UniProtKB/TrEMBL annotation:
<dbReference type="InterPro" id="IPR036388">
    <property type="entry name" value="WH-like_DNA-bd_sf"/>
</dbReference>
<dbReference type="Pfam" id="PF20239">
    <property type="entry name" value="DUF6596"/>
</dbReference>
<feature type="domain" description="DUF6596">
    <location>
        <begin position="185"/>
        <end position="285"/>
    </location>
</feature>
<dbReference type="InterPro" id="IPR013325">
    <property type="entry name" value="RNA_pol_sigma_r2"/>
</dbReference>
<dbReference type="InterPro" id="IPR013324">
    <property type="entry name" value="RNA_pol_sigma_r3/r4-like"/>
</dbReference>
<dbReference type="InterPro" id="IPR013249">
    <property type="entry name" value="RNA_pol_sigma70_r4_t2"/>
</dbReference>
<dbReference type="Pfam" id="PF08281">
    <property type="entry name" value="Sigma70_r4_2"/>
</dbReference>
<dbReference type="GO" id="GO:0006352">
    <property type="term" value="P:DNA-templated transcription initiation"/>
</dbReference>
<protein>
    <submittedName>
        <fullName>RNA polymerase sigma factor</fullName>
    </submittedName>
</protein>
<dbReference type="Pfam" id="PF04542">
    <property type="entry name" value="Sigma70_r2"/>
</dbReference>
<dbReference type="InterPro" id="IPR046531">
    <property type="entry name" value="DUF6596"/>
</dbReference>
<feature type="domain" description="RNA polymerase sigma factor 70 region 4 type 2">
    <location>
        <begin position="116"/>
        <end position="167"/>
    </location>
</feature>
<dbReference type="GO" id="GO:0003677">
    <property type="term" value="F:DNA binding"/>
</dbReference>
<dbReference type="InterPro" id="IPR014284">
    <property type="entry name" value="RNA_pol_sigma-70_dom"/>
</dbReference>
<feature type="domain" description="RNA polymerase sigma-70 region 2">
    <location>
        <begin position="19"/>
        <end position="79"/>
    </location>
</feature>
<dbReference type="InterPro" id="IPR007627">
    <property type="entry name" value="RNA_pol_sigma70_r2"/>
</dbReference>
<dbReference type="GO" id="GO:0016987">
    <property type="term" value="F:sigma factor activity"/>
</dbReference>
Length: 418
């Protein structure tokens, strides 16, 4: 294997293995930043040796063993070893040499879950949580994260550095939160993954309508969380939502990268394996026998679309009912906007327009381009094309996504032709 091919292979292995390696190290060194540094040391050694020696039969184990040795060396050299022992609760006599190999090992799932709760700790800003989670759990480089969110690379680097410092300064423990804090902390983890996926599914800015890489990383993290927290229905709900939404990628844009609306998509292009996985995740959540949360409700809405063989077969009445339920447990202007769309499809555009006009003055929607976009669509269906054109132009002026702006301006031009 040539050096370039070896490096590509190592990069792929690193993306898969790095989260559990960092998590295993962080549990013992009690410092996420140090854990990443030690894991990176192992990666550098692999990059130096593997192109010559070949990829080991079990590369993940090789990286873990190498990283463990680096951690052991660090702990042995540390001038504050006794303090570390006390912090970790180790009752060790000075003449006793601990079993370092045993000490560094622990169930992978537990460590990954702890790492998720650490990188998504509420002490960090939402932007910092996303950046740090993508870095440590997603295995993305700083450059890749910056590219995904269309922000300068130094900005992302600063966010990650500040996040690590904040966690250290706040003495955030690398452990599962107390039972009383678990729902709020789990909510934070799910929110970060949801935010990642949404940014990839409908990019807020830039020249691409979707960013599959970002969605893929969010879905991967969701799947990991579902395996290590199988008793949480909202985890399965979020995974189901992402599976079903991801199934539409090939149908969401044309060959030029232009957006294709849901009702106009070629459903033969949908990935039915992902749909089946999503429906299965919903079933797993339902078997837990607990009340539906916001992610499970959204997944159920996505399932209604997935089950419809054609756009005309969509059960909009059920979707409207699900949005009613969502608005009760997670009320927001955006939910109301989506509910208006569902109502318009189920009972006519005038019904949806009435709901939209009721939220039209909501301050949080002032610069939200989808409000005039949806309003324009409903006005167009009612034959009020001149008003619709004005709304589409307004929406185009608000969006930061180039493809979406072009799409909205074309819709405005169609209204002028009519």
């Amino acid at each position: 294997m040539n050096k370039s091919a070896a490096h590509r292979t190592i990069d792929g292995i690193w993306r898969i293995e790095s989260p559990r390696i960092i998590a295993g190290l962080a549990r013992r060194v009690r410092d996420v930043g140090l854990a990443e540094d030690l894991a990176q040391d192992a990666l550098i050694i692999a990059l130096e040796r593997w192109p010559e020696s070949g990829i080991p039969d079990n590369p993940g184990a090789w990286l873990m063993t190498t990283a463990k040795r680096r951690a052991i060396d660090h702990l042995r050299r540390s001038k504050v070893r006794d303090q570390k022992y006390a912090e970790l609760g180790w009752e060790i006599e000075r003449q006793y040499e601990p079993d370092w190999d045993e000490a560094i090992d622990d169930p992978v799932g537990d460590d990954l879950l702890r790492l998720m709760f650490t990188t998504c700790h509420p002490v960090l800003s939402a932007e910092a949580r996303v950046a740090l989670t993508l870095r440590l759990l997603g295995g993305l480089t700083t450059k890749e994260i910056a590219s995904a969110f269309l922000v300068p690379e130094p900005t992302v680097a600063q966010r990650i550095v500040r996040a690590k410092r904040t966690l250290a300064a706040a003495h955030v423990p690398f452990e599962m939160p107390p039972r009383a804090e678990l729902p709020a902390r789990l909510s934070s983890v799910l929110e970060v993954i949801y935010l990642m996926f949404n940014e990839g599914y409908a990019a807020s800015s830039g020249g691409s309508w979707i960013r599959p890489m970002l969605c893929g990383e969010a879905l991967r993290l969701g799947r990991i969380l579902a395996e290590i927290a199988p008793a949480e229905p909202e985890v399965h709900g979020l995974v189901a939502l992402m599976e079903i939404q991801s199934s539409r990628f090939k149908a969401r844009i044309d060959k030029k990268g232009e957006p294709i609306l849901l009702m106009d998509q070629n459903r033969a292009l949908w990935d039915h394996l992902l749909i089946r996985r999503g429906l299965s995740a919903i079933e797993r959540a339902e078997r837990l026998g607990r009340a539906f949360g916001p992610y499970l409700i959204q997944a159920s809405i996505a399932a209604c679309h997935a089950r419809a063989r054609t756009a005309s077969e969509t059960d909009w009445v059920r979707i409207s009912a699900l949005y009613d339920a969502l608005s009760q447990i997670a009320p927001s202007p955006v939910v109301e906007l989506n509910r208006a769309v569902a109502l318009s499809m189920a009972f006519g555009p005038e019904v949806g327009l009435e709901v939209i006009d009721a939220i039209g003055q909501e301050p949080s929607l002032k610069n939200y381009h989808l409000l005039p976009s949806v309003r324009g669509d409903l006005l167009m269906k009612l034959g009020r094309t001149q008003e619709a054109g004005i709304e589409f132009k307004h929406a185009a002026a608000l969006t930061c996504n180039e493809k979406e702006r072009e799409f909205l301006l074309r819709r405005a031009a169609d209204c002028a032709i009519d």
